[in-house]
């Protein structure tokens, strides 16, 4: 994998940092884009806000210039919003979540595709969630944004499959990171047949395979959730 270049957004901590470490372990040169790059692991760290398309475009060009191309991208930066029912959901928070999660993935893919299409191929993985495949009570903004990411992923996959770019997404269940510290862990863990939350490294393994394997897989939203979405409701 030496000579390959990857970009990871939100790679300053959590799942993104685990993916950056996984890629680096394989000899891939990794550029991390984050609004807070203090803890970015190795490689090139670029401070940028993914909800700002101008910053994203500049940051992606910088990463590709630094590495001499762009082969892999993991669009992972995301936020959750507040916990509230839809009848009471605050508009400003709703649209902020869409700007970061949906606008961010769109801006990133647009900039990444420019480089990948010019080079004849590449592989993109987006961070969806179990909330891309089912409703999550009191997380309407988050679920709407993740369903939109699934739609963008599938659309990009069919638009660019014939030009050598594969586009997939991962849909993790609960993963032990700062993002979910405020949740009622017990309730969420109990919904997972595996009986526990995932470690960031377990999601990184799936992202690594989707990014790098010379496979025919494109347009999938892959659950990485210890069986969460496979369970027949009510059966233990
Ligand atoms: N942790 C989970 O249980 C879980 C489950 C399913 C999906 N996900 C998704 O995985 C992704 C990563 O989650 P995590 O748990 O590692 O989160 P995290 O909060 O630990 O890390 C997110 C990173 O993204 C960065 N970031 C946030 N907004 C940004 C912006 N506007 N511009 C640039 N960087 C920004 C943060 O600075 C942080 O470094 C998110 O998209 C999240 O929705 C997480």
User: How many domains make up the 3D coordinates?
Assistant: 1
As for the CATH topology, it is Rossmann fold
> How would you classify the helix and strand content by structural class?
alpha/beta
Bound molecules: nicotinamide-adenine-dinucleotide
Pfam families: adh_short_C2 (PF13561)
InterPro entries: NAD(P)-bd_dom_sf (IPR036291), Sc_DH/Rdtase_CS (IPR020904), SDR_fam (IPR002347)
Keywords: Oxidoreductase
Protein name: SDR family oxidoreductase
Describe this structure in words.
Keywords: Oxidoreductase. It comes from Amycolatopsis acididurans. Belongs to the short-chain dehydrogenases/reductases (SDR) family. This is SDR family oxidoreductase. Pfam families: adh_short_C2 (PF13561). The protein is α/β, with parallel strands linked by helices and 236 residues long. It has one domain (5-230): Rossmann fold (3-Layer(aba) Sandwich), CATH 3.40.50.720. Helix content is 41%, strand content 16%. The chain is built from 6 helices and 7 strands; from the N terminus they run E-H-E-E-H-E-H-E-H-E-H-H-E. It has helices at 14-25, 53-67, 91-119, 140-160, 185-190, 200-212; strands spanning 5-9, 29-34, 44-47, 72-75, 122-127, 165-172, 221-224. The chain has a 7-stranded parallel β-sheet, sandwiched between helices. Strand 5, helix 4 and strand 6 (165-172) form a beta-alpha-beta unit. Helix 1 (14-25) packs across helix 6 (200-212), helix 2 runs parallel beside helix 3 and helix 3 runs parallel beside helix 4. The chain is globular, with a radius of gyration of 17 Å. The mean pLDDT is 95. Residues 10, 12-16, 34-36, 49-51, 76-79, 100, 127, 129, 172, 174-175, 177-180 line the site of nicotinamide-adenine-dinucleotide (NAD).
């Amino acid at each position: 994998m030496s000579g390959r270049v990857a970009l990871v957004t939100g790679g300053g901590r959590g799942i993104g940092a685990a993916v950056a470490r996984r890629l680096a372990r394989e000899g891939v040169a990794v550029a991390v884009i984050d609004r807070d790059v203090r803890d970015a692991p190795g490689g090139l760290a670029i401070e940028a806000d993914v909800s700002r398309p101008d910053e994203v475009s500049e940051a992606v060009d910088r990463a590709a210039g630094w590495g001499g191309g762009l082969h892999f991208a993991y669009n992972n930066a995301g936020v959750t919003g507040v916990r509230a029912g839809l009848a009471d959901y605050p508009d400003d928070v709703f649209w902020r979540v869409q700007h970061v999660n949906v606008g961010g993935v769109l801006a990133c893919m647009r900039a990444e595709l420019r480089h990948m299409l010019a080079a004849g191929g590449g592989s993109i993985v987006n961070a969806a969630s179990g909330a891309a495949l089912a409703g999550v009570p009191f997380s309407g903004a988050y679920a709407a944004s993740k369903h939109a990411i699934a739609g963008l992923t599938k659309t990009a996959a069919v638009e660019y499959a014939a030009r050598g770019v594969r586009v997939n997404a991962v849909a993790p269940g609960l993963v032990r990171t700062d993002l979910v510290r405020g949740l009622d862990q017990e309730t969420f863990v109990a919904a997972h047949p595996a009986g526990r939350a995932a470690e960031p490294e377990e999601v990184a393994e799936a992202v690594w395979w989707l990014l790098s394997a010379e496979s025919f897989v494109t347009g999938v939203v892959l659950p990485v959730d210890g069986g969460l979405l496979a369970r027949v409701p009510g059966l233990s």
